[in-house]
Amino acid sequence: MKSADLHLHTIFSDGTFSPEELVLQAQKNGLACIALTDHDTVEGCAHAAAACAAVKMEFIPGTELTAELADTELHVLGYFLDTQNEQLLTEIAKFQIVRQNRIHEMVACINELNVPLKVDDVFALANCKSPGRPHVARAMIKAGLVRNLDEAFERFLKKGRPAWVPKAKMSALEGIELIHQAGGLAVMAHPGLNRTDEIIPALVDAGMDGIECFHTKHSTATSERYLQIAEKYNLLVTGGSDCHGFSKNKPLIGTVKLPYEYVEKMKETRISRITTNSN
Ligand code: AMP
Ligand code: ZN
Ligand code: FE
Ligand code: FE
Question: How far, in Å, from the CA of 195 to the mean position of ligand 3?
Fold first, then answer.
């Protein structure tokens, strides 16, 4: 049966695979279709599209926007985006600057604790426009300041820890609109991780198209719950591994295999939207 993984990260945000390495891994896992969803960027999409074309794998250009609603952080996935869309590129560039400034702030907090992490080392390791906490954690490991990612997050980077710095986020409603005007479908990422089901009706009212029912960190019961919610609100169903490469143990790609029929439904919705808009 054909399957897809619609939630994947590369070195263009906080993953460790290049787009080419990611496609190779997707091939090894027998996936027919992948979407790239790096945080607040679409920079890797052209590379991944080329790598997919070379092996005749279907590719969906995407992103994972960091957004908020009612003081809750949530991630909004965008699929089938026009990665040249001007408004999309302008908006995400602002949030990339926020991410870069936040690295300086996090390192300053770490230095205040007399832990000698160098900000240049973090940027050298991240080497992308959309750096995040995993890059800080990896730079700390590399400098011998912590033993592993968990220690870095537990001691410094997790919410409430001394180097946790909140970041300015777009509102979820703006995120949905931004994705739509770039021709994409907007999907709520890993709802089971946020435990914020009460915001789903507001997202549906804002035009959200789908919900990520299948995710590495969703139990079978959690997936079932969101499948029911998808049915209730007539939402598209998506799923993906949220693979970040080798950042933690074995790569997650291949652990979630979304039956391809869900991708077909996404394509039908997208086509009907284009037809409606052009009438
Ligand atoms: P940021 O976007 O900079 O806030 O970083 C969020 C990313 O950090 C998530 O996408 C995860 O990949 C990663 N992350 C969050 N919490 C942890 C944790 N406790 N251990 C390892 N990685 C984490
Ligand atoms: Zn990430
Ligand atoms: Fe996420
Ligand atoms: Fe993700």
Answer: 13
What is the mean pLDDT, run by run of 10 residues, along the chain of 279 residues?
97 97 97 98 98 98 96 95 98 97 98 98 97 97 96 97 94 97 98 90 97 97 98 98 85 95 97 77
CA-based nearest residue to 240, from 208, 211, 207, 198: 211
75 contacts 196 by C-beta, under 8 angstroms: no
User: How many angstroms is it from 104 CA to the middle of ligand 4?
Assistant: 23
39 lines ligand 1 (CB under 6 A): yes
**How many residues in total does the chain contain?**
279
95 C-beta closer than 6 A to ligand 1? no
pTM higher than 0.85, yes or no? yes
DSSP 140: H
- Tokens representing 32? 């027919």
Q: What CA–CA distances, in Å, run from 9 to 6, 13, 72, 177?
A: 10, 7, 23, 23
